[in-house]
Amino acid sequence: MKLTLRVWRQKNADADGAMSTYEVDGISPDMSFLEMLDVLNEQLILSGADPVAFDHDCREGICGACSLVINGDAHGPERTTTCQLHMRSFRDGDTVDVEPWRAAAFPVVKDLVVDRSAFDRIIQAGGYITAPTGAAPEAHATPVPKPDADQAFEHAECIGCGACVAACPNGAAMLFTSAKINHLNVLPQGAPERETRVLDMVARMDEEGFGGCTLTGECATACPKGIPLTSITSMNKEWLRATRKVSRR
């Protein structure tokens, strides 16, 4: 396959960026999108040019590092992570636009790399449970009803890639935040911080400058792990419940 790539290049956070055009040839349909970018970077290095900076780690679809907007879609045309997107999803001769996540809370570091530490700070605000120190507890010491366990696992699948933010017209982080809150709030182990967790994490999300949610659903459509839109409505109920409980104190 031969492709024309239009890639966002930006030297640093303070510099102006622009799309640069490259031609890549000899691309196998079985390559992943990141492997195709590796081929481009080898080509650039051999020519003495600066390679394209992009995030990646496990390349197995579980770490969430590979954050790219491809032809206007977060992670590309398939509902998967960029590292699991294969070049057979494109045709020989295609022109492919490659950009970083576009969100005020995700400033560009260089080229296709963005700073997603805002997600870390949301987690730090309440994404933990109280646990006694000492020996590991017996695995069956705290019974968890099957429906609650299933719901917790469903939300725990969120890998924090940020596709929901990139796809949202408002740059909202509600799907990510709701997944992290609901994951713990439905479990008995998360009960001690149930109210403070949702209040603190939502407050931190707002402080980080993410946009407001209007439930357009683009976040759930782009999510490679299928976190449902109902996660947001569940979090909203948790937030109202916690707000009312705190106001009565």
Give a topology summary:
Elements: E1 3-9, E2 18-24, H1 33-46, E3 69-70, E4 73-74, E5 95-99, E6 108-110, E7 113-114, H2 117-126, H3 146-156, H4 163-167, H5 174-185, H6 194-207, H7 218-222, H8 230-247
Parallel strand pairs: 1-5
Antiparallel strand pairs: 1-2, 3-4, 3-5, 6-7
Helix pairs in contact: 2-5, 2-6, 3-5, 5-6, 5-8, 6-8
Task: Give an account of the 3D structure.
- The protein is of the alpha+beta class and 249 residues long.
- The chain has 8 helices and 7 strands.
- It has helices at 33-46, 117-126, 146-156, 163-167, 174-185, 194-207, 218-222, 230-247, and strands spanning 3-9, 18-24, 69-70, 73-74, 95-99, 108-110, 113-114.
- The protein has a 5-stranded mixed beta sheet with strand order 2-1-5-3-4. Strands 6-7 form a two-stranded antiparallel ribbon.
- A hairpin with a 2-residue loop joins strand 6 (108-110) and strand 7 (113-114).
- Helix 2 runs antiparallel to helix 6, helix 5 (174-185) packs antiparallel against helix 6 and helix 6 crosses helix 8 (230-247).
- It starts with a strand and ends with a helix.
